[in-house]
Write a structure and sequence with these properties.
The chain is built from 22 helices and 13 strands. The protein is an alpha+beta fold. The protein has a four-stranded antiparallel β-sheet, covered by helices on one side. A three-stranded antiparallel β-sheet has the order 6-8-7, covered by helices on one side. It has a two-stranded antiparallel ribbon with strand order 1-12.
């Protein structure tokens, strides 16, 4: 439950040590570079844009080569291999990749070039196939499509719209050119859209015949082939086979590079690391012989880094406290249980300046409320067992993802506990199975009570847990006020609200309204009832008089106080929001019971058992999945809206140190 204390570190060293110092700082990965120059005239910044762009481009080339390799030589992976995280490699192997970078990049460029040639070859083959397909209607033609005739005859080769036979074509010519008598019509082929034909006539009649044909929709080919169609198609098919062989050869050559996959990953990350280093290099102020680095560092590591920079490189290094007006980046440090909720907190916003890290308290309530919403022991056991197995089997998974898995592990255990308390084991599966298939009912009694049988009792406890949750948020606001010595804010914004709320609760509990909901009458001694009444009055008066204390105008002050006092309705709606604990808990149990009843409808025979198993597996998988999602969403909502709304705003920027940012591998740290 802590925001790591930050310090500003300032370092000045000789320019000849710049490369070694930056590489070492990148290996340490504990400084967020933040350069703030007071006098920019005495320093200059190096233009490294072209070098950085070169490294980024080379990294992209290696990435592209890896993607191409995955297409032509897929890497065999299991379903859960993506959880294993990035492989850990020795630093010497990474340095070897740096030494052999040119050879690796030649391989990457060759793979990219081959893929481009494959794309071009496939485009060429597709074009040839299209040309060959276009020749299909002309395969019956024994002369080239571009053939125009002999010395004394003309040959008109083309198409007519629609399907037509030789009699229709001859009739068309006779009707429009009756004086023409020496005409030969040959139908090459026909379909529902076009008729392909060749008409032979004397040269002197060619114009009249063509005009007659155009009256019927005749058109010559736009790009007539200068070869006999059948022969030309054979040539095209041979070209297609040649191109396909080339493409297959290129694909095989790419597949043969599969053994270079690890080297390509190394060189890609090498260039990615160099690009990051050059990004920082372009931000550093430099003179002819020196350079400077400034940024944020966790206070616990500051002295060690200063000492190493001074002793190893002779640098002038110092640390200083961060000024009050300066916003430093936020790094959280929590125990193994509380860190699991850091992702939930970061989704809302990291602690802003002056705020505390609420991870510890949030983690307790999150796990508590999540389990209460899901509340089935079998579901909880499955979730915690699955997440626990993943955590043990994949110790090097992504850090943020590991936190999320760990969160669901704890939530699964909480669900298991609440399921035992409420007697939910796949709903009432034990009761249904024993009665349906064994003839007598066996039940595991709830250690506390069954919410389906006592929903109002569950509602009361949901409201109680909500009040505790909200009061904890208000108490954390009080702690922050006392820590910052804002005693008036503590009195007016915390104490008065506690007096009002506790007093109102004390007034509500002995009433008939609450008795009707709870099913039992609560009787307070007269002194306690009077204390509750006066507590509520004192809190209300205090809020009315002091909530608007920022204004010196008495009227405005009272108006602001009255407006703040109206916020009591917000507290009421917040408490009612915790009725979702009842709703989701009942939904899990009701749906589970319905699934069990549906599965048992076919009796105790073999067929009934098979159907029950099928319905059981499918139904409970769906129920567990949908209610896991519901519990996650609504638990987050209770934290974000109701709990954080009492004391927390967020808005802090995450700590992003200058480090080895890799995509494919992690470099083993030197001991």
């Amino acid at each position: 439950m802590a925001v790591v204390q930050m310090q500003r570190i300032n370092l000045c060293a000789l320019k000849k040590d710049r490369k070694a110092i930056l590489e070492r700082l990148q290996e340490i990965g504990a400084i967020e570079i933040d350069i703030r120059l007071e006098d920019e005239d005495i320093c200059e910044k190096q233009d490294v844009g072209s070098q950085r762009a070169l490294f980024e481009r080379r990294a992209q080339t290696a990435d592209q080569a890896l993607e191409i390799l995955q297409q032509y030589a897929p890497e065999k992976k299991g379903m859960l291999d993506s959880l294993a995280g990035k492989p850990l490699v020795e630093k010497e192997l990474f340095e070897k990749a740096a030494a052999d970078q040119d050879n690796y990049m030649k391989t990457a460029s060759r793979i990219v070039s081959l893929d481009r040639q494959i794309a071009e070859g496939r485009a060429t083959a597709l074009k040839l196939e299209t040309q060959a397909e276009a020749l299909t209607p002309w395969l019956g033609l024994t002369v080239p499509v571009s053939f125009s005739g002999t010395k004394k005859t003309s040959v008109l080769i083309g198409t007519m719209a629609g399907a037509a036979d030789i009699h229709q074509v001859c009739g068309l010519i006779a009707g429009h050119a009756p004086e023409t008598d020496a005409v030969d019509v040959q139908i090459i082929s026909a379909d529902k859209d076009f008729t392909y034909l060749a008409v032979t006539c004397l040269k002197k009649d060619a114009a009249r015949v063509e005009e007659a044909l155009r009256a019927g929709g005749f058109a010559k080919p736009a790009s007539p082939v200068r070869k006999v169609p059948a022969q030309y198609r054979q040539e095209l098919e041979e070209q297609i086979r040649t191109v396909q062989q080339q493409v297959d050869g290129y694909a095989k050559e790419i597949a043969d590079c599969a053994g270079c996959r690890q080297e390509l990953r190394l060189v890609s990350d090498y260039y990615r690391v160099r690009a990051e280093k050059y990004r920082i290099l372009g931000e550093l102020p430099q003179t002819a012989s020196t350079f400077a680095v400034s940024g944020y560092v966790p206070a616990a590591m500051a002295d060690r880094i200063v000492r190493e920079m001074s002793e190893r490189y002779g640098a002038a290094a110092e640390t200083e406290a961060i000024p009050e007006e300066e916003d430093s980046p936020v790094l959280l440090h929590n125990n193994g249980f509380s860190e699991s909720v850091e992702g939930v907190l970061a989704s809302f916003g990291l602690p802003g300046k002056g705020e505390i890290d609420p991870s510890f308290i949030t983690s307790i309530f999150y796990v508590f409320l999540f389990g209460l919403m899901l509340s089935d022991a079998a579901y909880g056991l499955i979730v915690s067992a699955a997440c626990g197995t993943v955590l043990l089997k994949f110790p090097r998974m992504d850090r943020d993802f590991r936190k999320s898995v760990k969160l669901f592990f704890w939530c699964g255990l909480s669900t298991l506990v609440w399921g035992v308390l409420f007697g939910g084991y796949f709903g009432d599966a034990i009761d249904v199975v024993s009665e349906t298939f064994f003839g007598h009912k066996i039940s595991i009694p709830a250690l506390w009570f069954v919410p389906l049988n006592e929903p109002m009792k569950m509602l009361i406890y949901s409201m109680l847990f909500g009040v505790i949750h909200l009061f904890t948020g208000l108490a954390m606001k009080g702690y922050m006020c006392l820590r910052d010595r804002k005693y008036m804010d503590f009195l007016c914004d915390v104490v008065f609200w506690f007096l009002l709320l506790i007093g109102l609760i004390g007034i509500l509990l002995p009433t008939d309204l609450f008795a009707g909901i709870a099913g039992q009458q609560i009787v307070f001694p007269a002194a306690m009832s009077a204390a509750a009444k006066w507590s509520a009055i004192a809190g209300a008066v205090g809020i009315l008089l002091f909530s608007g204390r920022s204004s010196k105008n008495p009227g405005v002050r009272i108006a602001l106080g009255a407006y703040d006092l109206y916020n009591i309705t917000g507290w009421l709606s917040d408490v009612l929001s915790y009725s979702r604990l009842l709703a989701l808990g009942l939904a899990t149990g009701v749906i589970a019971s319905v699934i069990n009843q549906m599965g048992s409808m076919f009796g105790s025979g073999i067929v009934g058992a098979i159907i029950f198993i099928a319905v059981f597996l499918i139904g409970h998988s769906f129920n567990m999945g949908i209610n896991l999602l519901g519990a996650y969403v609504h638990t987050c909502r209770l934290q974000y809206v109701e709990f954080f709304g009492k004391f927390y705003e967020g808005g802090g920027s995450p700590f992003e140190p200058f480090r080895l940012k890799t995509k494919y591998i992690d470099i083993k740290e030197e001991k």
